[in-house]
Amino acid sequence: MTPTELKQVERMAEYIGLFYGKYFLQSALTAAAPANDLHFFYLMKKFSVIYPEAAKETIKSISRHLTYLTEELVVFSLFDDSLNYAEKTTIGNRLYHTDRPRNILPNKPKFPAIVWRDDEKPLLSSFVGSKSWLLFNLLKLEGKQEWLNIPSEHWHNFEDFKKAKHFVDSFLCTNDSAERGIKLITDYKDSCFGIEEREYLAQVVEKHRMSFKATSGQASGQAYNKKTMESVFHK
Asked: Which domain of life is it from (predicted)?
């Protein structure tokens, strides 16, 4: 390995260890997605001071994936257990005092234009807007939602909050989570050798789903062969 290559590996290790690793592992936590995305963006802005070229491409990629900072989805932060009470209260108050439209047509969210002032990270509440009521409209949570106007440590006492939180917690996060799903099925597929074994595998999975109404199967690392598949399929 040349000195240049070694330096690149060291820089990549620093990037993964200090920044990317944590947020990759938390990528499936839907309620935490807005706060995580914003903080990761903020860290990359600071990282760009040290390694501008490395951070440039990451920032460019982040700018194309701001879905959870849009008006429609930033309210997922209201149900983020890792977010401090004060910030959640601020988000709730901002939404409570934002006029609620009668109808919000579901549409492709518009990415926010993030304004970075000096060395400060924008508040999540600054991304709240009238379309932030979409979640409540879709869940048919009517009324003023008074719980939004009180300290967030008391929200768990309200039924509408619990209903919305249950929905958000069960909502599947995209991006890295989806990519990991693709990687998993790719590894699963590659555990078979040859087209015929892959066809048997597909039939076994389909049979299992029809029989048990579930999608979980055996561990992806387990070796499958034609005889094993035939015995399972013809049980």
From this structure: Eukaryota
